């Protein structure tokens, strides 16, 4: 490190180049560590568990297309009966609302009556007593619905159900000081109570949500079937049978009754028949896309910065051939020449990451204010700093190696 | 002189091929990254009705109150009573409440499958107001509105499917058990984003295929299949209770051709809301909004934060590429200090040096533009596979994007060349000649 002083003196002769390399490292650091951090945040977001045994569940969204809508309950019931009897089907349920559905019914939930100001916004699933077995969801307290508690109603006639099942996260928010089991909750500012009869450990809500959502896993499950909404049949397959029933179940439904619509994916709606892998992919498509774009941009930026460093260092080496030759003639070893350029780059890099960190903090602040992202974590900043310093050393190594190979004879040449 | 400098520039670029290729690649990547995100941004922030976007207004009245509204902002939709009152008062040139309904198009033959076309309920004024073009017939009459007639306007796609594109005026379609007489077939009409309803439907999805009279939909107690916002659920059950509640579910659009009319309508809305306050229906002070199409799309965040953010990110990428190119050009130019010294000593003015080196920068910019264009095409394909299919369908390479790519590339390289050129022009001839 004895070389620092002469290096600084030399850098003063190349102010512009130094500033340009430094600026580039600083900007790259600021952008790349924010990008990597956002990638990480989105990965975390996407990989949250849904509470569903995803590998065995099939969803079929069904809309009746009939002139006479008075007997929809009988039609739904016939479908369910058919589905439950199909070979390869373990169980089938009917629901309006299910994990990662990407849309659905949200309401406020309160532990006091007629309180619409409560902000515990939760997903609501309107379903029967088969949903929890189909999703393979674990009750940690209380019991599942009984089939006689399930009511079939039109949407405009619906009232909050007398019994509900909550997810644990919501139960804890409503009754922080003890079990919510047996206690009343009030849906959507209602005056009439719904009693909590069961608590499940974990399920994802209707909306995969924004990046900052607290309500992801807050769900109210009600033994109500909304007959005039596009309901979804959720089917759990016997091991290894998912593929077979993905083809077989819709065909059997169509054979039973043709006056129905199961979306084929050509319209606005998602495909009518989706296994849970597709449900998850549809719910997070934008996020996955952004992750890919950000990763691509990060890699391109790092390459560009490396290229810039190689270019400018090569120029400096070329400019100083004679001086390097003189130093070599005066007894400097190759290692010393090599370490001169590496140290030079390190010094520029250290100065640059200092400004880059400030800039990264600024960008993070801007993004968190405008786009509600999380604030950059220090670990990512440190990781970014290490990456860029290392990148600088690697990029410098090539030109520096060439410099080290300059023969002392160069000192005697003119030009 | 221009051609001469261009020639010099090209020759100089050939002299250090590695450095040149590096600069071109860097510019190409920078430009293509910013162009690809610009293309996405342009697609999603499109003005869907350019000649009228400052004359159509979305109306909002706060029916939730300061405790329950969205941070002071009213719901994007109106409740039934407000929408009906505004329609009755009829203060603008044209206006319509609208909402999406879920009707099934039932097959007439056993071999056909039922369909669920995208259907909206509007009144007759919607057709001239939204400039909906017709291939056959037209909108229904005001009498049809009043008598809540079973009439329908269908889209071209649906007409192609049902009637093989023939004039179907006077024929009927069966929607959920009722025959509707077709009075008009729309020509291709697919505003993107679908600004009338950005709340309930995919703004970049398939076009609306059926319109039916609003009064018909209301008289048949058709529920909205779009978004509904309610505060408290104790309004009771059934259609009557729902329409008398403060649940918001009707979008409301009004056409106000001049700013003066828009201002007058704003006053009218305020007065209407304060009347409601005095009548005790809304105990809070008037809280109303009037947004034209562009303001509305911004207000409703139709441009996703992701695409806005990627625009910022790509500007950052371009900036880095600029700094990079600047550094590389500096290296390149300064390596030729001797040459510059000789030229200056032989009498070349500074201006000539400026011209020559800026020209060299432009050459790099043009080459970067060509590469950038290729990469943009590649990027658009890449983005097409990561965004939803509706947005991907809007991404296209047109003349304006090509022009933009070259403009951005050349201008940014010019910017990047300024400092290196200035340094080159300031080379001291005497010093250069002496040392060499």
Automatic annotation (TrEMBL), chain A:
PANTHER family: ABC TRANSPORTER PERMEASE YTRF, MEMBRANE COMPONENT OF TRANSPORTER-RELATED. The lineage of its organism: Bacteria, Pseudomonadati, Pseudomonadota, Gammaproteobacteria, Lysobacterales. It is a multi-pass membrane protein. It is found in: Cell membrane. The chain crosses the membrane at residues 20-39, 293-317, 346-367, 379-401. This is FtsX-like permease family protein. It comes from Dyella acidiphila. Belongs to the ABC-4 integral membrane protein family. Keywords: Cell membrane, Membrane, Transmembrane, Transmembrane helix.
UniProtKB/TrEMBL annotation, chain B:
The keyword Membrane applies. Pfam families: FtsX (PF02687), MacB_PCD (PF12704). The keyword Transmembrane helix applies. It is found in: Cell membrane. Its main location: membrane. Residues 20-221 form the MacB-like periplasmic core domain. It is a multi-pass membrane protein. The chain crosses the membrane at residues 21-41, 309-331, 352-381, 401-419. It comes from the Bacteria. Residues 313-429 form the ABC3 transporter permease C-terminal domain. Keywords: Cell membrane, Membrane, Transmembrane, Transmembrane helix. InterPro entries: ABC3_permease_C (IPR003838), MacB_PCD (IPR025857), Macrolide_Exporter_MacB (IPR050250). PANTHER family: ABC-TYPE MACROLIDE FAMILY EXPORT SYSTEM PERMEASE COMPONENT 2, MEMBRANE COMPONENT OF TRANSPORTER-RELATED. This is ABC transporter permease. It comes from Dyella acidiphila. The lineage of its organism: Bacteria, Pseudomonadati, Pseudomonadota, Gammaproteobacteria, Lysobacterales.
